[in-house]
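Protocol step 4 of 6: structure prediction from sequence.
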Amino acid sequence: MRKHFKQQKKRICQIKDKQVSYGVSGNCTKEQISKLDYISHYIVPVIAGLGDYLAIVLAEKITWELAKIIIGGRFNLVIPNMYFYIWIPAVFIFFLFYTGAHRRMVPFFEIIKNTLCATFYAAVATIFILYLIHSINDVSRFFVITFFIMSFILICIIHQILVAVFNKLDILKEPVLFIGANKTTQTIIDYLKHNNCFGVRVVDIIDGTFTDNYEKDMAKTKQVIEKTKVKSVIISSASTNKMAKIVTDIQPLVKNIVFTPNLINIPIANLEINKLPIENIVLLTIKNNLANRRNRFIKYVFDMVLTIVGTICISPLLICIAVWIYKDSPGPVIFKHMRVGKDGKMFPCYKFRSMCVDAKEKLDELLQNDPQAREEWERDFKLKNDPRITKSGAFLRRTSLDELPQIFNVLKGEMSLVGPRPIIQDEIKKYGSHIDDYLMVKPGIAGIWQCSGRNDISYEERVQLDSWYVRNWSVWLDITILWKTLKAVLAKKGAY
């Protein structure tokens, strides 16, 4: 019991110590928090709206000038100034706020998705407005598509500029009180700090559990709320039977209460919430998107389009790498290795050869004579210091360029752009009960494990990440993983 108490106290202190980097140190008073922070929920929407207005007007002007240059004399669109400077920007701003494109504590890629949806809805509405003012006959597809693209790009850029400026100046952050000094609180704080969103100011972290002495913990919480005048509370530590009472007691004192339900090991990316207000019941719906034939077709089309375009673009690079490999180590340029695919079907996975020609014999000799290398191989099926790797192969592995030929596996329908890491037959037993998730989909060139540490994470973590991806798939998730994988590859994080 004493050991458990010491560990708990140590964890609380670690989280408390982190508060300094988020703008607080210990218990804060109202005077210690900037007045701008306390009225940030009024100021930020106004500044964001002004930024949106600037982005939309700029998009209109840029698109207008491009249309005059490209279309020339055939461009006869007439838009009255009232529509150009007032009504069209107003429509965009309305949809941006309606879809939550400027909300706090929302994942960066979710904000991008909301911005894309808002821009699309607003563009459609703009066309309708042009119908009303009888200008639609002069609207070209070039103008509409370019205006949509320019609006989306400029809105995202200005939004990120505002976020960067606010975070750099450390202003306009919403004060937040956390209940629960635990790992979940630490994860939320770290996430909000590094998520490219309008930040939050940690006013204090209450370390009570509300189980042993509820009245004492609640009195402490109310004292902090009254002292700091905080309006947002995040609860990350409370038993299910106490949650209702905590919310009931705190709700009259604040505007917003956020709590983290216990959904450990439950796939939540596709979670839908339905409310029955009168019955006071919440229904959580979890969908397996890849079980839907339409979604599998969408994923297939997504893979084919990007792969065909990408193959055309990188074909000169493929040729250069092939020549380099052959000159560095004469032999086959492409290495084929049998991997486990969808439904357990074996397929030859293509990679640029990064090892010497007699790699198998050298591996057998190494594993026989080096117990430490044998242990590493049996654990990870990889060697950090692999003597079989050629000079060109070392570079290709660090940059992940050795995996480029797998685009031909995608074209053959054996792999996907994003999916679980392709495994060999001997690795099946390591997946245990998660193997059904793996066999449900095609393995991918990129995967969530690659943008989460690549070879620096343990094998068990890889398996869990692969399983998580299958259970939470969406097209937007694939786009997010491709982007994050590109960043991880450029950073050469965990590659060998």
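Step 5 (inspection) to follow. The chain has three domains: 2-30+172-262, 40-168, 293-354+389-491.
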